[in-house]
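call fold(seq) -> C-alpha cells
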Amino acid sequence: MQYDAEPVRQSFLSWMFSALGVQYTLLLPLAAIVCFGLVLLIVLRGKGPLAAAALVLIVHVPLLIGIYAALEGMLASYTVIAASSSTPKPADVATGVSTALVAPLVAMLLMVPSYATAAIGALVRALRDDDARTAK
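ret:
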C-alpha cells in the first residue's frame, strides 16, 4: 500500500496548540498562574505545619489537569476505534493520542515554577527556623 499524499507540515508550536485544543490551551496556563500565585502567598505568609500541606496540594493542580486531559484524549481515541466498523484512519486516532501525550507534558512544564518556589521557600523557612532555635 503506497500513499501518494504529501504529509502536512506545521510548526511544533501550532501542533501543540492543536493537540491541546482550546480548552486545555487556556486552562493549563491559567491553572499554573493561579497555583504559582497561591504558592507564593503561602511561602511568604503561611505559618505552621498546614502551610507545607497546602503547598503539597496546590503545586500539583496543573499536573492533575494534564492527567485528566490525557485520560480524555485516550477515551477519544478508543471511542474512534470502537465506533468504527472498519479500521479507522490513523489521523483520526492520532488526535486523541496527541492530546493524551502533550497535555501532561505541558502541565509538568507549567508546574516547574510553582514547584521550585515551594521547594526554595520551604528550604529558606527551615533554615530561618533552625537559626531562630539555635539563637535562643
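The chain has four helices and no strands.
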